[in-house]
Amino acid sequence: MAKAMFKTNPILLGELLTDCEKGKLQLPDFQRSWVWDEERIRSLIASVSRAFPVGALMALETGGGVEFKPRPVEGAPRVAAEQAPSALLLDGQQRMTSLYQVTLRKQVVETVTPKKRPVKRWFYIDIEKALDPLVDREDAIFGVPEDRVIRSDFGRKTELDLSTRMGEFENLMFPVSMVFDFPEWQKECVSHFMETDSSSFQEKWTLLNTFQEQIVENFTSYHVPVIALDKDTSKEAVCVVFEKVNTGGKALDAFELITAMYAAEGYELRKDWFGEGTTVGRQARLARTHRLADAKSGILSEVSNTDFLHVVSLFHTREKRRDAAAAGKTGKELPQVIGNRQALLNLPLSAYVKYQDQVEQGFVAAAKFLHRLHIYRIFDLPYQTQIIPLAAILADIGDGIDHVTNHAKLVEWYWNGVFGELYGSTTENRIAKDFIEVPEWMRGGPEPTTVLDASFRAERLKTMRMRLSAAYKGVNALLMLKGAKDFRSGQEFDHTVFFGENVDIHHIFPKKWCETSGIQRSVYDSIINKTPLSFRTNRIIGGEAPSLYLAGLERGKGNAPVIAAETLDGYLSSHLINPNLLRSDEFEAFMVDRQRQLVSLIEEATGKSIPVDDVVSDDISRADLDAEFEAEFGPDDDESISDGEEARLTLSTS
Prior knowledge:
InterPro entries: GmrSD_N
Shape: elongated
Largest sheet: 6 strands, mixed
Number of strands: 16
Distance between the termini: 45 Å
Number of domains: 4
Low-confidence stretches: 614-654
Region (Disordered): 631-654
Protein name: GmrSD restriction endonucleases N-terminal domain-containing protein
Domain GmrSD restriction endonucleases N-terminal: 14-262
């Protein structure tokens, strides 16, 4: 039978708070800062004052194999940081910090209002209200400003002055900061009334005794259930347990745990990633990589710290596998090459230090590679997840990418991942395989699994209507890569034109014309009827029939230069558009022809033949597709808007 890795003990609240103050109970460094607002603090005080349960705590005994850098609870004295903790609080930080600050610390509490405005508060219990069974306990608990005076009329009128003990006694307002020192406060209160109003002494004495029995003793005798994890609990178990109990906050990822473990060895991983002061962190450096024009950030701006660690882990685990193979191990004896969470939690600091710079250069090379494919923005990136193996491969081959054959193979691998739509889910194994197989392929080995697995059907083009699919974004990038020219200016869409002219995907047969002609949205909205164009060109196109807007472009409509018909035909052909079909407004023939041309484009990119005769009828599930579209994006009544502008907030990546 497996040994239980935890035990549960009820511990006095006062004892736990004292341990917080002395530093015997601290937080692991991955815990986030204390964030509770004054309303939640009031509610917590009310619950304890009524001896209501406020939930169990969870702590990890120290001294085992999992070493985290500790830090005291917020507000604890400096000497607490000098103490080696006996336990680290995994769950209960917000509750324990709140109770420590309002009771034992005896300093004003720096918190926030529910609207997140910073405030400083002392917390009080209205004794008479607290003892009134008809008054909600939370209504008997309130916070006062730092000077302990409540004012109204823009500060001109004093409503309640608790700035002195006399003010507290006269108003029968008990400071929560004295809850563990109630006898002292009670003694002073009794002395005050004996001197100032002896006739009411007996009444006040009875009231204070009742308050002690019904309210104060609920604090002093309050036991908190503490689940103590054994010191030998594994890193993975700590992470899983924390996520299970931390349902109210952001899920803990491997980065926080690794940060705490590295900190125990004196390495500041958080500073390395996020930066500090004048030090620019790795995250900012990646975000700025190949940032173009007026863009706030570049194509790597959404690379996460765990993405980065994932690539480091691939190198580290491959090194371990090679060492094991050199030692004569085979088959299942060989460790996996992997970058999942468990692998990250076992990633030693030495491996991170060894590979960090090489991995960063891999991501920088990935940004350059994507730009060469005309993928400039996060919004147009087919798969965020595919950046991980791309960066790993480039970090591994280094200058080898400059060899034309290697570059061509990497391009082929990338487009097969995109058009095969292979990086949409469950990618860990594929990432590891690509990291191993693609460099081997470049050295003359067999085709990688991703290239072998990829397949694309011609009819898929008809169902790609917005940036819900990586392949949709891939078609747009391929058109620009193959030299598509703007209908108005004749410029190719390099990064300068792309950003300077606000290029996006727009309809070829305009939406308004299609709807007037009775063409269903699910048909005219497919990628077959879309192409990259500048904002100004799309404005000129408007909602007219192609024959009309092409004539307008030729005569220089909208202050555009006059364009010869044969020149404009050349621009259209660069988008894989048959000029004759467009000029004669032959929508159905155009859709068939362009579908075949786009299929040829994808065949060239992936190196695979795609049959075009197995085409789904235009009538298949069109009503369902329209309903799905409306439910997802709502009605689209603006002819000039691009599909990129419609979905910009929700579809930045597949």
